[in-house]
């Protein structure tokens, strides 16, 4: 079973027990709750049609910064070169449970 959630402008396919890195968002006491559930599948190839009150809870494992990405800009024949680095902040979370239509799916 798995669910598709949306957070930070991206969509993630999650299942209970999964760990993933998402963009940094606010969290309280090391617990995050995702209420924007786009899809849920309890069996292979079948999706729930009603997702009223569906939510996914996760535990925060840590925060950090990703790998450095180099951005290089060049305008040829104009002697213009610019190099810039970027490191994206992230939060690492572990999915604890998926709650859909009154049923709870845990790891």
Automatic annotation (TrEMBL):
<dbReference type="GO" id="GO:0003735">
    <property type="term" value="F:structural constituent of ribosome"/>
</dbReference>
<keyword id="KW-0699">rRNA-binding</keyword>
<protein>
    <recommendedName>
        <fullName>Large ribosomal subunit protein bL21</fullName>
    </recommendedName>
</protein>
<dbReference type="GO" id="GO:0005840">
    <property type="term" value="C:ribosome"/>
</dbReference>
<comment type="similarity">
    <text>Belongs to the bacterial ribosomal protein bL21 family.</text>
</comment>
<dbReference type="GO" id="GO:1990904">
    <property type="term" value="C:ribonucleoprotein complex"/>
</dbReference>
<dbReference type="GO" id="GO:0019843">
    <property type="term" value="F:rRNA binding"/>
</dbReference>
<keyword id="KW-0694">RNA-binding</keyword>
<comment type="function">
    <text>This protein binds to 23S rRNA in the presence of protein L20.</text>
</comment>
<dbReference type="GO" id="GO:0006412">
    <property type="term" value="P:translation"/>
</dbReference>
<dbReference type="InterPro" id="IPR028909">
    <property type="entry name" value="bL21-like"/>
</dbReference>
<dbReference type="GO" id="GO:0005737">
    <property type="term" value="C:cytoplasm"/>
</dbReference>
<keyword id="KW-0689">Ribosomal protein</keyword>
<dbReference type="InterPro" id="IPR001787">
    <property type="entry name" value="Ribosomal_bL21"/>
</dbReference>
<comment type="subunit">
    <text>Part of the 50S ribosomal subunit. Contacts protein L20.</text>
</comment>
<keyword id="KW-0687">Ribonucleoprotein</keyword>
<dbReference type="InterPro" id="IPR036164">
    <property type="entry name" value="bL21-like_sf"/>
</dbReference>
<dbReference type="Pfam" id="PF00829">
    <property type="entry name" value="Ribosomal_L21p"/>
</dbReference>
